[in-house]
Design a protein that fits this description.
Elements: H1 10-17, E1 23-27, H2 33-46, E2 55-59, H3 62-76, H4 78-83, E3 85-88, H5 89-99, E4 111-113, H6 115-126, H7 130-134, H8 139-152, H9 162-181, E5 183-185, H10 186-199, H11 201-208, E6 213-216, H12 224-233, E7 240-244, H13 259-262, H14 264-267, E8 272-276, E9 278-279, H15 284-294, E10 306-307, E11 317-323, H16 324-340, E12 348-352, H17 355-367, E13 372-374, H18 384-397, H19 401-407, H20 417-425, H21 432-442, H22 447-467, H23 473-483, H24 486-493, H25 497-521, H26 525-536, E14 552-556, E15 565-570, H27 587-598, E16 601-615, E17 618-621, H28 626-630, E18 637-640, H29 649-669
Parallel strand pairs: 1-7, 1-8, 2-3, 2-6, 4-5, 6-7, 9-10, 11-16, 11-18, 12-14, 12-15, 13-14, 15-16
Antiparallel strand pairs: 16-17
The structure holds a DNA duplex.
Length: about 675
Amino acid sequence: MSTWFQGLNPEQQQAVAHNEGPLLILAGAGSGKTTVLVSRTGRLIAEGRTTPERVCVLTFTNKAARELKHRVAKKLGEKVAAKVWAGTFHGFGLRFLKEHHVAADLPKGFGVIDQGDAQAVLKDLLRDHSDYEKARMNLDVLMACIHHIRTKGRDDSFDNSPESAASVVLAPKYMRKLRGLGVVDFEELLLRPLQMMRESEELRQKMQRRFDFMMVDEFQDTNHTQMLFVDELSGGHRNLAVVGDDDQSIYGWRGAEIQNILGFPKRYKDCHVIRLERNYRSTSSILNLANSIIANSETRHDKVLKPSLNNKGELPELFVYENEEAEVDQVVREVMEFQKKGYRYKDIAILYRSNSQGGLMEGGLRRSQVPYKLSGGTALFDRKEAKDVMAFIRSAISPNEISFRRIINLPARGVGDKTLEAIEGLPGSASFFAKASEWAKANPNEKASEGILSLFEFLRGLKAQLSGGSPSAEAVLDHELRRIKYREYVNQSYRDAKSADSRWLCVNIIGRIMDGMFAKEGRSLATVEKFIERMELRDSLEDQDDPDANEVQMMTLHACKGLEFPLVFLLGLEEDLLPHARLGQNTDEERRLFYVGVTRAQKHLIMTRVEQRKRYGQMRPVAPSRFLLEIDTALIKELRGGRPFAPGDREAMLAGLYQKLNKQMGQKDI
DNA sequence: GGCAGAGTACTTTTT
DNA sequence: GTACTCTGCC
């Protein structure tokens, strides 16, 4: 038996051994799916069934793609691994469009805009329709309707909502607008290639011949377009292996269609189905609870997690507290107790449904000086300062209208609405950037002209210094942006110097990321271009968490997917929180969220709920989560008001408290 | 361009 | 009850 099968169970071996034809791998939580993906990739190459560049593995996150490449590299070497196409769906789409930008009718250095920019474009469009503007539509809903039209057309899911109606009119306008701006949004990154493959038989065949084997990770999270995209790419050979777990589908609200994985055997009738049910992560007590939770899910592929560790472990605990303050205090206390018992802080995760819960918890940990890391909140890319800096860099290297408009008057250089209108009004089909230059030269006496010309000069200098000079990119950005008084602008935007400083840090971080790329790939214009590309796909390259940091991990249930921790706290198991009050009828997805949280725990799971929680400024009684009522009560141990003190502990604690009080009193007296 | 007051949302956020 | 965004006015 070859090395690729070593240490694998029979089902994993089957999956790794699979050659031609469609394959569905139902990989339960902690069942070693990445190992299977890596080994199958390695085996196909090592056995000479294909060459590395003819294998394509699609993932959802940049991190997952990196991890996969890293593990393939360990087995086959860096050189071979680098040739495998492992990347995100969007990364694939971007590369496709770059290669075919002429056929795609896009400018050579077209940009990719994120959700925020896309929404701004839409909002701008809305201004031309005063009747729509008045209707006070929800932009998220409107954008979702537009996506729906772009991907599936107008179907019976359309109702009488103002958003539905408006989207019919706005969808074509929105797409035309993006074309005019010389950018694509994330959706278009996949839609346009799909359209192109469908319209050109030549292109389709070319793409279908490009790979011998395709694999898709986290298949339960694919959306409609991604399914069609994969269909199209693997249409020639049908060597398509998808890996996923329908029980961990938690992104339905973002367009993920669980039907893609549920219906895969129907879509690919001859597909081979392999279930990876052996769990290598958790104790059997935790798995029993997990199985009991998910068994209540309506639509799913039947499977159970079977324990492999010969360890029953302790029964998961459920603490019931009076209110959220008690919850915070007691969880902090538990964390410290477990730390004393030998858990490191980084072995402990605190999970919750919504970010606000994390904020609450954060206060408690800080008061007790427990080191922690809070993930989530606003990403670097969504910070205004980060977007500004990226707009400066893009405008210096290959400007598009969105990036240039963002900075044309930043910081203020006298370019107001009037000037912008004048620039727009210039005849011809030149880009906005070119027109701005034209206008500035034609109106030398205007104050705005001076501003625009100095901006051009700044951008030219920035381009030269970033792609060539010797000072680090961090130093160049810092210095140059101070020179044009962007630093002053940031200072003025915030009340205190401290928050301005922390915002300025975004500027420096971006510089550091660029320097990191220079170190790896050499300093050149091409590297700067690649840097922009990566940043636009939100690949910061710096999300590899510091493995040495000994900090309690705090994150939402969505963010914890794919991770594991010896000790997990799962907070707020209450109606209206989990399941969340604002869920539609999709209880199943909320239940899966609960399931995802539970299956993160390796050794010990502690759940909490409270009887009163503050909502909208009022203390309100809250009911236990319906999911707690569904499960067999014998699977958990319920404790009211926190863990009872062990003998002797109470005395020790009281003594400590008195000591502290005495000390404080003493200080006051002096 | 900057400020103040009104209005509104208080779920999650792989790209 | 609060924090953030938008609008309108100076």
